[in-house]
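so my prof wants the structure for this chain in the tokens format not the other one, which i didnt know existed until like an hour ago. anyway here's the sequence
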Amino acid sequence: MIQIDNTLVSLDVLERQFLCDLSHCKGICCVEGDSGAPLLEEEVGELEKALPVIWDDLAPKAREIIKRQGVAYIDEEGDLVTSIVNGKDCVFTCYDADGTCKCAVEKAFREGRLSFYKPVSCHLYPIRVEKYDTFEAVNYNRWNICKAAEVLGEKEKLPVYKFLKEPLIRRFGKEWYDALEEIAGEWEKQKNEE
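here's what i got, hopefully its the right format
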């Protein structure tokens, strides 16, 4: 583990390689899992504000769930997460003609219809951040559905932290990311000297 300010960063974030390969996985990370995507409290309001813009992009079942329970709920572990459909799809999923699962919020952002990109936990994936009393743990979440992304990341020699530069800066700030990058460079040098 590496400490930067009040965060502990897993070495996997520096050492593992990752590059999303949507052509292989078809966005399954927005479908599989035991609950929705983790949310910050302020993101619930952003998602509620996005609803009028993305409503027609959402599946009819997703609209039913949102009408009944809202955009978020507290899961079995006590975490605030996006609502899901039939224990699977995030309510904000939409599908391309080829069956690739996408985020309706991100789609609207990219089209210039929203100023909110998407929940930061989604943007950060495969990194998960866990809050503790005195620190936050920043961990790489390995999941077999992302095997193609690991293979592509290794081929392109792209570490997790470089793949996720933009969301890491969004979540922790540029200064924090610069410190991570410096530590990663030192870590790489040490490994090469061994």
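also thought this was worth mentioning. Residues 47 and 71 are 7 Å apart (CA to CA).
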